Amino acid sequence: MGNRSLSDNSLLPLPATDAVLQQAIDERAFPGAAYGVWLRGNVVAMSAVGRFTYAPDAPPMQPETIFDLASVSKVVATTSMAMRLWERGQLDLEQPISRWLPEFIAIPDAVHVADRQRVTAHMLLAHASGLPAYARLFEQCDTAASLLHACLRMPLEAPPGTRAVYSDIGFILLGQLLERIAGETLDVFCQREIFAPLGMTHTAFCPPAAWKAAIPPTQIDTTLRPRVLQGEVQDENCWRMGGISGHAGVFSNVPDLLRFAACILHGGAAMDGTPIFLPETIHLFTTRDATVAGSSRALGWDTPSQPSSSGQYLSPHSVGHLGYTGTSLWLDFEKQLAVALLTNRTYPGNDPVDGSGEISQAIQKARPRFHDALLREMHRA
């Protein structure tokens, strides 16, 4: 991270950016937020606004607060594991996934087997497999094995490679595929191969109980579990899978995400120079995919499309990802810039209080406002 440490007192104050987040809190987009910025080799800003909940005596957010990343897990863990296995020659992106997941084509409807035989790991990463976006499988599956079985039997909604639909189901299967190739689970592989070498000491699936006080709650669950969800994954399908899945489950904080982002932007090297990824691997996975015309997807990553949650100032050579809990990570290769924004926008519940939809739309408005304010204020600094 260059010459500036994560605790350096010379970090830029960004009051106008903080004010945008405070406005979002006032609009009940989320109870609180933490963010950080890496620019050309240095961490230049880190801040936090708001509290763990809307209660006035709730703990204040800190830059080091640990959040449920939700779908940002797809890039920090699952895509990163795919990158490591690909550059070792263990993952063939164009090989049908049935090579590792034979259950995927073991369906009674033989008419559709031919389509299923064409689905590749490349398609899963590019969200072009034809699998549906989402299903509330946790309602009918009471074990990890039964939920995985339901994903393996999920009908395709389109022929493979013909349309891009962001799919949790696809990434659940991708996670299982990677685990079978590696012979170990996502959490074990990523801890050894990604998190530990990068110094991501506050990043993990299924965070230990000792971290709970540093993790804001994501939901007051009144139905499935029911309890306040704090320190356990909010995503119900991931929870059914024991908190470890290809589509969700990672907890992390701003400093750790900036370490990860710096590695991607610096050609795959950790802070101490240890190579984590090859430059050609990063190039392949962060280049917009051409499988489906008009898709904004790279392999695992997304790229800016208009309008974008990343605002209007990131260059076209940027990648990022969002998470359902109100998290995001954006990297700009031209600007050598990374921005991590973490919130717990799902607290106290997923549904708008007044039924109007305004609260659920608040995070959609807050993200581009935040990124635009941040880039403008940094330009003036």
List keywords for this structure.
about 375 residues; alpha+beta; 5-stranded antiparallel sheet; 3-stranded antiparallel sheet; 11 helices; about 30% helix; disordered N terminus
Strand content: 5-15%
The SS-based structural class is alpha+beta
The low-confidence parts are: 1-7, 352-358
Count all strands and give the number: 10
Mean pLDDT: 93
Radius of gyration: 20 Å
Q: Largest sheet, order of strands side by side?
A: 2-1-10-9-8
Morphology: globular
Largest sheet descriptor = 5 strands, antiparallel
Terminal CA distance reads 20 Å
Fraction of residues in H or I helices: 25-40%
What is the N-to-C order of secondary-structure elements (H for helix, E for strand)?
A: HEEEHHHHHHEEEHEHHEEEH
How many helices in DSSP terms?
Answer: 11
Provide structural commentary.
With 381 residues, this protein is α+β, with helices and mostly antiparallel strands. It is built from eleven helices and ten strands. It has helices at residues 15-26, 73-87, 113-117, 121-125, 144-152, 168-182, 186-195, 236-240, 254-265, 279-286, 358-380; strands at residues 32-39, 42-50, 67-68, 204-205, 219-221, 227-229, 250-252, 318-323, 327-332, 337-343. Strands 2-1-10-9-8 form a five-stranded antiparallel beta sheet, with helices on both faces. It has a three-stranded antiparallel beta sheet with strand order 3-7-4. A hairpin with a 3-residue loop joins strand 8 (318-323) and strand 9 (327-332). Helix 1 packs antiparallel against helix 11 and helix 2 runs parallel beside helix 6. The longest helix is centred in the C-terminal third of the chain and has 23 residues, at 358-380. The chain starts with 14 loop residues before the first helix and ends with a helix. Residues 1-7 and 352-358 have low confidence and may be disordered.
